Amino acid sequence: MKGIFGNIIYGIGSGLEWIFTKIINVLAWIVEGIRLIGKGLLGLLFGIGCVVIFISPLVLAFIFNPAVFPIIMIFVLVSLLGQPLISYLRYGNYVITEFLKDYGEYLKNEGKKEYKSFRDFSSQYQRMQYEKKREEQRKYEEAQREENRRRQEAWEEAFRAWFNQTTGAYYQGQKDYRQSYERSSGYVNPNASFRQQYEEACNILGVNYNADKYQIKLAYRKLAKRYHPDINKDVNATEKFQKINTAYAFLNDENIKRYQGQ
Q1: Which one, of 59, 84, 55, lies nearest residue 69 by Cα?
Q2: DSSP notation for 209-225
Q3: What is this structure's pTM?
Q4: Domain boundaries, given as residue ranges, for the chain
Q5: Are 101 and 124 a contacting pair, CB within 8 Å?
Q6: Cβ neighbourhood burial of 117 (10 Å; 0-12, 13-18, 19+)
Q7: CA atoms within a 13 Å half-sphere pointing along the CA-CB vector of 157
Q8: Gap between the Cα atoms of 251 and 202, Å rounded
Q9: pLDDT of 147-179, one tens digit each?
Q10: How is residue 235 annotated by DSSP?
Q11: Rounded to the nearest 5°, which phi and psi values hold at 69?
Q12: pLDDT tens, position by position, 117-134
């Protein structure tokens, strides 16, 4: 007898699940359709001018027409309440139908398995929704990081192209920096000369003399963006920008190791 009753309850649960699903799909279709229509009407209003429309007697008469006003109110109510109602129906669909099917299985198995209460399924649904939101947030943040990475790479690529055109390639920049220093101060001791050049380059980038390549790169990016001639319109920006790039060119991995090894 319990088995028959269990089959009936399980069938009711499956039937309700089908009904809930159809209702939810229809409501979702209606809400989405009204949302798109409303979006189009708002675009039309802003295109023509809200003030002109609402001060027009003909438009006001049309809006408050007894045959039109209820339709407008339905649109507004569906837009405001449609999505919350769909969410509530999804919650009810899961909790009610899963409970009935679980209880039906319990009866069909003559009580050999335990069944969950409404509260159990309610808590389970809330956990599922929480995990779903966390996953959506994780995907959104991951997409944002990827977008930021692509933008940064594009900016660096454009910057490298500009730098190569205006200041020359890396090795030429290093050579010019060294020659400029030697002409101004005189060549004395190779190690002392190198140390002086290195520390001067660090001063230009505003980093500690013992900074690693990541700290140097971070400081360089900040200064390069600040003094980029396309962004900074100061008359001295180009000169400062070239000094920053020449200093960064000098602070390469090889020179970092050489300085820290002294």
Answers
A1: 59
A2: TT--HHHHHHHHHHHHH
A3: 0.47
A4: 2-116, 168-260
A5: no
A6: exposed
A7: 6
A8: 8
A9: 888 877 777 676 666 655 655 544 455 555 555
A10: T
A11: -60, -45
A12: 878 888 888 888 888 888
pLDDT single digits (tens) 217-231: 888 888 888 888 878
208: left (phi over 0), alpha (psi -120 to 50) or beta: beta
- 111 DSSP assignment: T
pLDDT digits 0-9 by tens, 9-36: 889 989 999 999 999 999 889 888 888 8
Record the tokens describing residue 153, joined without a space.
């790479």
Quick one: which of 241, 215, 204, 236 has its CA closest to 226? 241
Asked whether the beta carbons of 101 and 20 are under 8 A apart, the reply is no
In the chain, what is the straight-line distance between the N-terminal and C-terminal CA atoms, in Å?
91
d(CA 220, CA 255): 16
* Those residues with Cβ within 8 angstroms of residue 209's Cβ, 6 or more apart along the chain or in another chain: 198, 199, 202, 259
The 10 Å Cβ neighbour count of residue 241 is: 23
Please, where are the H alpha helices in the chain? 2-48, 50-55, 57-63, 69-108, 118-166, 170-185, 190-205, 213-227, 237-250, 253-260
Superfamily for the 168-260 domain: DnaJ domain (1.10.287.110)
Interior angle at CA 197, CA 233 and CA 228, nearest 5: 15
How far apart are alpha carbons 3 and 153 in whole angstroms?
65
